[in-house]
Amino acid sequence: MILNDKNAGRAGSRKHVISGRLDRMFIELSRVFHFLVRFFRELFMPPYEFKEILNQCFEIGVRSLPLISLTGFIMGIVFTNQSRPSLAELGATALLPALIAVAIVRALAPLVTALIATGRVGSNIGAELGSMKVTEQIDALEVSAINPFKYLVVTRVLATTFMIPALTMYTAFVALLGGYVNINQNEQTSFVNYFQQVFEAITFLDIFSSVTKSFIFGFTIGIVGCYKGYNSSKGTEGVGRAANTSVVTSMFLIFIEELLALQVINALRSL
Amino acid sequence: MNKAKSFIDYSKTVLSIRGLRKSFDDFHVLRGVDLDLFQGENLVVLGRSGTGKSVLIKIIAGLLKADEGTINVLSREVSRLTPRELDELRLKIGFSFQNSALYDSMTVRENLEFPLTRHIKSLSRAQVNQEVDSVLEAVGLAQTASQMPSQLSGGQRKRIGIARTLILKPKIMLYDEPTAGLDPITCIGINNLINEVQEKYHTSSIIITHDLTCAKMTGDRVVMLLEGQFGRQGTFEEVFDTQDERVKSFYDYNFTN
Questions:
Q1: Would residue B200 count as lying in a domain?
Q2: Which of A21, B24, B220, B239 has its CA 20 to 30 A from that of A3?
Q3: Which of B54, B57, B88, B97 to substitute to test the interface with A, most A CBs within 10 Å?
């Protein structure tokens, strides 16, 4: 009898915990929805913060170049090196430039750029806005009659949305250069010949899908970082949590988006 | 510092609050607050931590919404204003935050320029510099213009926070715990600065504090927030000339510790 009561109690408390978590999840989803609605509303309403958008584009785009350059170049070398043995077994090393081009432009460049940007830019936005929130700097903007959402959130989300595609194209170019260095060493292919094969292999749809995905990844990184930072609380602990959850949530969403985009692009290819 | 009171006009109300109520979940912070602030007056709101003093001025500045009640600032009802109208009103209200809330990615000069250049586009570079230098001199920190907020002491940060609000020449100043976390000598400096601001800029101010020295030095009138409502009010001496244990214990604790 006592055992039954205990089991019933445990089941009841488990039910309570689950319903509490579901409640929190729906409340959070509703907040995210309102944040998105506010973003699109503020986006089209003047005044437009052009100066701050350019400033953020510089911070997000230009300051990411050293890391992106290094990562992209090494990625090109490593990917080419690892792909060679498989193609060599089939006597098809001549197809290496085409293989590298397709892999880098279609998948690696958008994904790697987005993941690097998540770590560098997403965490930075989360921490910066979180810190501004807990030190009342966001309130200070508001009482100075400056719309903090427009000044801090809209500018950063626009900057990530437009800079990530640009960085993706740059990553693809640097990675292809890395691939060329490796191929030139092993197969003595000329620069012109290599890039001729690269451009023959990639189609308009490859570039279009890559850029479109990057826009989505950029928007995700910006909006998640801003949401987490803008809504952070609990002092310095909240700032750390905002930075951390910005990265984790963005990465998770980017992988989901990559999978969904893959399905859409495959459907488009089969048309 | 003896306060000159010639610029206080008790016939003109710049801020009027009636029946203000605010709760956070089940916690009733403000339970029907009534308040008038007169032209040129320094009004001190005293109270223990967590009694809703900061909530009160955040509602006045439109950072929080009241559950009930009317707030009339410079003849405008805050709850009925559109966002644009609220922003226009905010330009006439200076808010000095407890932790100064300086933009830590900007230098002191940039912190002061920022609200000015955002709202008064017609100013030339020379005029902006002149305005910044003028308020920096007013708060006695002309030498800090090129420093970052992280390089300043607590007292200096408070002064720059006040300077940033003064640059837009507000009619009403709201000070949230201006002396919190400062040593007694720096506190006296800040209290003197509040009085100088009142005298020089002819502002009407609400000073939120639990520091009785600050209340005594700066307040033309003092009100005490007790259990979500205003209790006693009058001059500093009038407020503490009471047998009310809640008020007496507040006084005794401040001046015996």
A1: yes
A2: A21
A3: B97
